[in-house]
């Protein structure tokens, strides 16, 4: 189980590396545009989860701290949860990357944000939303009120 636990991270590293270290390479956007980049992590999730599907289903269909704590003692359940987290973080990072490229947010600013998304997405995602809002104001050359007035005029 330890090998699958480790493998789930390694199968997503190439995608993170593209977004962080080669964000403007013409093939990066093409590769990252596919939602299928999360498939390798989800395949590992399925391999690990199928044998313990009953326990996993009980845990997610009737969650409680006690049930999750007990289930997480099983290495297969913990590995499945890890794979799910890794897949979700990659999907979220994919959205952040694509959105930042559409908004032309500088890659040197996005590198640390994407790295933070890998580590602490619940904290860094709102930070990105703030960066996104500020970048939108700066790129429009005016305040949000000025933009709203120009839209209605």
UniProtKB/TrEMBL annotation:
InterPro entries: ABA4-like (IPR025461)
Keyword annotations from UniProtKB, A to Z: Membrane, Transmembrane, Transmembrane helix
Superkingdom, natural source: Bacteria
Pfam families referenced in this protein's UniProt entry, alphabetically: ABA4-like
Transmembrane segments: 7-25, 37-57, 109-131
Record-given protein name: DUF4281 domain-containing protein
Species, as recorded: Nocardia mangyaensis
